[in-house]
Amino acid sequence: MKFLFVHQNFPGQYLHLVRHLAAEGTHEILFLTDQNPNLIAGVRKLVYKPVRAPSPKIHPNLRDLEQALLRAEGVALAARQLKELGFTPDIVIGHHGWGELLDICDVWPDVPILGYFEFFYHTDGLDVGFDPEFPIDPALFANIRLKNAVNLLALTLPGHGQTPTRFQYETYPPWAREKITLVPEGADLEVCRPDPALRRKPLKIGDIVIQPEEKLVTYVARNLEPYRGYHVMMRALPHLFAARRDLRVVLVGGDGVSYGARLATGSWRDYFLNEQRGRFDESRVHLPGKIPYEDYLRLLKRSDAHVYLTYPFVASWSLREALAIGAPVIGSDTEPVREFITDGENGRLVPFHDPAGLAQRILEVLEDEDLAARLRAGARRYAEQALDLNDYFAAMRRLMGRLIGDERALAPPAAAPAKRRAGAGRR
Q1: How high is the pLDDT of residue 55?
Q2: Phi, psi of 44 (to 5 degrees)
Q3: How far apart are CA 137 and CA 31, in angstroms?
Q4: How far apart are CA 327 and CA 51, in angstroms?
Q5: Contacts of 325 by beta carbon, 8 Å cutoff, 6+ apart
Q6: How large a percentage of the chain has pLDDT more than 90?
Q7: What is the pLDDT of residue 409?
Q8: What DSSP assignment string belongs to 165-209?
Q9: Would you state the pLDDT for residue 426?
Q10: Mean pLDDT for the chain?
Q11: CB 338, CB 349: distance < 8 Å
Q12: H-helix or E-strand containing 393?
């Protein structure tokens, strides 16, 4: 098979899939992307360039759309060059959100496209207006609606779409869902697996040292910002330290903004740290920024209570990985988290806007060893049943085979059949 993947931040959502296909050694895999240092063995990475920078004078509501159209032109130009060199893929796979796939059907009209539909924006009922602390000016509603321009254009393209969760699928209008297939993503259950031994010896993460007798509370987000409940987590800390002094709290994430509004100056990280300054023992709260993946995994495996909070928005990979690791997860009682966590079975849920309630849930897990053990076992059991990558690979093979009209072309090689782990099953 000849695959062409497209995503401006290689490998994006396709990390596990391209590794899996490359490991078979029977496919030609090209990946068009913007400049970045990432590499995967067996995958030929090619860099495309937008034809120009966005215009500084364009209407503000059209900036994202213009950037998407410029990316589409850059990808189409690179695709034409590939075609001239004799390469025609059997399928094109990419993320619709960046606009990169909009013109590729003009290069290869007969090649099926499988596009990733991540989220359909709404002016109410989801992330917008969810947090009363950050009300949105109705004057910005037009901009929010315009964020769906690429979504809507993509839905008119030939081909089909995929999305990873029921929540994300249902953000799309009913008329659009017939073009989208729900394909649940998973986690690497071998890499993300429990390691109880880490809780019996000191753990060093950079300059941070957690002793075995200390209770470790963890929180992870790409960036420390309100969309992922960073402000709620910070406001829970005084309640936690009022109850216990043997805590170490590690908050992993960058100073930027992935979602939502930016401050006029400074970072959300420092804003809420300063808000709570003097209300807890800062020597026991660590903000290491972004850390290597291996350290992140060790931190979650050692965690006595892991916090995952989010607006009604796209769930992070870290939630899946924390469950696979068997961390006792305390999550926000929001729809994307409820899709993964059943309260009391494989985690605990707490209202998003309740710092005191969050602290109480964390303390319950820290103080009740039987509860913590039950949640750990439930999290891992859920991951084995619902997050097995083999299920994801099988579903993607079926979908891609259907689109190219030959499901046998994507059957696993006979010499290396896909292995299922004990207890694994589809969601």
Answers
A1: 92
A2: -90, 110
A3: 40
A4: 46
A5: 192, 193, 194, 297, 300, 301, 379, 380
A6: 93
A7: 64
A8: -HHHHHHS-GGGGGGEEE----B-TTTS---GGGGGS-EEETTEE
A9: 28
A10: 94
A11: yes
A12: helix 389-404
Backbone angles phi, psi at 154, to 5 degrees: -60, -35
Q: Which residue has the tokens 């989220």?
A: 119
How many whole angstroms separate alpha carbon 356 and alpha carbon 371? 20
pLDDT digits (tens, 9 = 90+) for 92-146: 999 999 999 999 999 999 999 999 999 999 999 999 999 999 999 999 999 999 9
Q: Which helix (H) or strand (E) holds 302?
A: helix 293-302
CA angle in degrees (0–180, nearest 5) for 166-171-175: 100
* Residue among 424, 396, 281, 338 at smallest CA distance from 1: 396
Longest dimension (CA), the chain: 68
Q: Which one-letter amino acid corresponds to residue 353?
A: H
CA distance 329 to 361: 10
Order the strands of the 329-332 sheet from edge to edge.
285-289, 247-254, 215-223, 305-308, 329-332, 348-350
Q: What is residue 6's three-state secondary structure?
A: strand
Residue-wise pLDDT for 30-60, tens only, equals 999 999 999 999 999 999 998 898 899 999 9
Report the interhelical angle of 355-367 vs 230-243 (nearest 10°). 50
Residue 60 CA from chain centroid, whole number: 27
Domains of the chain in start order, with CATH, are 2-186+389-410 (3.40.50.2000), 196-386 (3.40.50.2000)
SS (H, E, C) 310-345: CCCCCCCHHHHHHHHHCCCEEEECCHHHHCCCCECC
Q: What is the pLDDT of residue 12?
A: 95
